Amino acid sequence: MKRFNHYVKIATLGVPLCAGLFIAPSVIGDAATNELHEENIIINNQVGKSDYITIAGIQKGDEVVVYDHPSMYTPIEEKKATSSTLHFATSKLKDEQNTLYFILKRNGEQVGTYKAVTYQNPVANHLVQSGLHLVNRARASDTLNIHEAKKGYTYRVYKDVGKMKLLASTTAKKDGYLSIRLDIPAYEGEYSQVYITVQANGTNESEAYGIAYDKGHSTPPNKSSVSIKNNKTYADEIHISSVQIGDVIKVYRTKKESTYVTTYTEKYQPNVLASRRSSDSSTTVYVPQLGKKAGTVYVTITHADELESEPIAVKYKKE
User: Fold this and answer.
1) Is 199 within 8 Å of 205 (Cβ atoms)?
2) What single string gives the DSSP state of each residue in the chain?
3) What average pLDDT does the segment 41-50 reach?
4) Which of 159, 143, 164 is nearest to 193 (CA)?
5) Measured at the alpha carbon of residue 209, what is the angle toward residues 207 and 215, in degrees to the nearest 5?
6) What mean pLDDT is predicted for residues 84-110?
7) Which range is least confidently modeled, 77-81, 236-240, 307-311?
8) CATH second-level architecture of 123-212?
9) Residues carrying CATH 2.60.40.10, the chain
10) What are the tens digits of pLDDT across the range 230-249?
């Protein structure tokens, strides 16, 4: 699913049959310059608020006429530019995908042809840009983390794109981080997906957005099983109990996100501070020096035939 620049997707449409009266047969002289261009028309459609339209690359004194139907019979807005860029608010847009039709007039004459610009459902745009993070755990319930959830929005996860089998549904109680616990289907290869939708009050549920997931991640270690000894001179010790032979323990200075679900979000891969493969039911990872002051490290575990777990934050005391 593509990221939309300023919530706008450009659509090039054929000329409607009833639009002939609005298209000048030819343009000469100054009217041939500073025409409308789709890439200069920016529509910011917001849920339940005033929306905003910006039109750049025109001339002072130009008139812009806006329609919301291809017949272009009744305009929804008529604005006069006071500079080469026109900004205005409007309450005429819908909280759903729709197309607007723009005509530019200069000195009472139409300049060029009309331009059609499609704006997207603002709720669906939010979903694409909300920082989705899906974790498929091998031995526990799975989680879908939404880093920028909106208060009052309802998020639903489905097994299928047709939204027939609901896996989880949660309404955000505040803006910001939201974690949804669910059980996703078993991993069946690179095409394994679940589908998420979002719905704001007074709007229709959005289309389903597919989220790919990989094979199961190991369950994170329990914080109570991790202890840290911050030595003054010798290597510092991070002791982990309740592990299995062959488990790989890794220690990071900064938090590591294990799975991102949008191609637009790069995985953050911090440097590994130290790692060790367990040869018993407990193991100790040695770090040259954590530092004199108290702090926090992040610990992960990877069981055989599984992916690295999510990190847990473990605090340590000063030397």
Assistant:
1) yes
2) -PPPBTTEEE---PPPGGGGGGS-S---GGGGSS---GGGEEEE--TTS-EEEEE-S--TT-EEEEESSTT--S-SEEEE-SSSSEEEEES---SS-EEEEEEEEETTEEEEEEEEEEE--HHHHHHHTS-EEEE-BSSS-EEEEEEEE-TT-EEEEESSTTS-SEEEEEE-SSSEEEEEEE-PPPP-STT-EEEEEEE-TTSPPPPPEEEE--SPBPPPPPGGGEEEE--SSSPEEEEEES--TT-EEEEESS-------STTSPPP-PPEEEEEE-SSSEEEEEES---SS-EEEEEEEE-TTSBPPPPEEEEE---
3) 81
4) 159
5) 150
6) 91
7) 307-311
8) Sandwich (2.60)
9) 8-120, 223-256+269-316
10) 998 889 999 999 899 999 99
pLDDT at 256: 61
Share of the chain above pLDDT 70, in %: 83
Q: Which residues on neighbouring strands pair with residue 197, listed in sequence order?
A: 156
Using an 8 Å Cβ cutoff, are 9 and 118 in contact? yes
| Overall CATH class of domain 223-256+269-316 | mainly beta
Task: Judge whether 53 and 40 are in contact, CB under 8 Å.
Answer: no
pLDDT for res 227: 94
* Strand partners of residue 168: 157
Average pLDDT of the residues of the chain: 82
| CATH C-level class of 8-120 | mainly beta
Instruction: Choose from 52-66, 93-107, 217-231 the range with maximum mean pLDDT.
Output: 52-66
